[in-house]
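Handoff note, outgoing to incoming analyst
You'll be picking up this chain. Sequence as last confirmed:
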Amino acid sequence: MLKDILPDVVESDKEDAPSPGLTLDGSWERNGRNIVAAAVVGLLLIGATYFIVQSILVTIAALAAEVIKGQPDHTASAIDLIAEQLLSIKNVILAVVLVTQITFLMIPTIILVRRWHSTRVLDYIRWKSASALQVVLAVVITAVFVPVNMYIGSLVNRLFPVPEKIQALNNALFTAQTPLELGWIIMVVAVTPAICEEVLFRGYVQRTLERRIGWKSIIVVGLMFGLYHMNPLGLVNLSLIGFLLGYLFYRSGSLVPTIVSHFTNNLLAVLMLYLSATSSDTFGLFDEQVSLARVAVLVPTGIILLVIFHNLRNRAGDVPTASHA
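Most recent structure output, in case you need it:
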């Protein structure tokens, strides 16, 4: 069954396979530079800028809040002081995340694609429609694998336990207490990353690497996606999500299923935190402790759904040619 969902290696490993209608007229392409280097350099430049700017803005906000608040409680521990400080500017942090994702992830990626690769940016990143069935399957497949990923995360946490105060702080930053706050957090945590991160990682980096290494770009970019979040204990979970997103992108030939899948994954995480904070009943959908028996049912179910997704249609032959305008 696993063989059924593996891409066609022979066809996909052909560099710059024919693609009518898409001209590679960017400066990197015209000069015949290595496209793997373009993907790596682009990711490093955009990623580093994003994290540096975001860190500076959050630090400035925290210092400003400290000045306004006055002298800290010297009897509290360092972690407690940091937690109190960050929670006091929770909405500022969320706003910084939203703004920087758009201005330092998505917009620079679009500019880079236009200047380095093709003036037809949307075609290059595969911002195009997908079938309704592909979109629905992307949602269902993601929802099926979320509890599996939670189970894997719980295993990692048992081996390398995260201090409770740090985990509580992380949860508190992204936990809504009211329906209005829930909508705000969904916008920041689910909607914006689903678009901005997918444009960068799948639309640009995987799209570009795919021209050279074919289906292997799914694995490479999945690992990059896990490392990008700078969470060592979450590397396995995040990489698995990256692999799924990469496969949906590769097989569908469209960015839409990956955006929908990414949104679904993050939305379920936000809803789990919200229901845990506001309701004693999570309806069995968002239990923190996922049983092995449940995982044993979900894994083959997810594989079957992936096979169905794979067989919907052949991916569009839209990898651009090496010819230039």
